[in-house]
Amino acid sequence: GCEAGAAGPGCEAGAAGPGCEAGAAGLGCGEPGAGREAKAPSEAVSAEDSGLDHKCLFCKIGNEKEAVELLHLDDQFACFKDVRPGAPHHYLVVPRNHIGNCKTLKKEHVSTVEKMVEVGKSVLQQKGFSDLADVRLGFHWPPFCSMAHLHLHVLAPASRMGFLSRMVYKSNSYWFITVDQLIERLKSLPGDSKS
At what angle do helices 110-126 and 179-188 cross, to 10 degrees? Predict the structure, then answer.
């Protein structure tokens, strides 16, 4: 995985390799300028700073501490382009505070996942994509995710995904879980949540 700064296949934040999502060839994990558009990081320190993992690239991106073009930013979520797109529109929606991968979620996270979906669909519509029936929304299931920060893949049109992308983002496979299946799993977990 890439969390510790290693660069290898599937690394979402570092060197070149299949599935590299937030980096570019030859640059280490989280290295400034790793294939991202220049944008001055925010000088302000977030009031939610205590919920961040300061070593996590997606925490940095979501809190404007990395030079990445944000397509959406609110108090809870950020959305940005996947630098190795699997479809003409391929975005990642991340919580601004650190939340582990989808396997760490609990029943009370159902509303978080639903809000991430709303953000992803909203960004698609802002980018001129309106056929929401032709969208793939989901998460890589551990151990097939290389970032330990929850991130929703938003791919559209799903009908135009290439062969490799159809495999990497295959619905309800051992390695990729759709939003609907994840929500169903979370709702079946024990807990007091009303979600």
Answer: 160
**Could you tell me the fold of the domain covering 69-188?**
HIT family, subunit A (3.30.428)
Residue 186 is encoded by which pair of tokens? 């979370």
C-alpha angle 177/25/116, rounded to 5°?
30
Residue with the bigger pLDDT between 17 and 170: it is 170
Residue 6 scores a pLDDT above 50:
no
**Amino acid 194: pLDDT:** 53
Concerning whether 151 is annotated as a catalytic residue, the answer is yes
Q: What's the CA gap between 32 and 29, in Å, rounded?
A: 9
Give the start-to-end residue ranges of the domains of the chain. Answer: 69-188
Q: Choosing from 90, 98, 140, 151, which is the catalytic residue?
A: 151
Return d(Cα 37, Cα 24) in angstroms, integer: 11
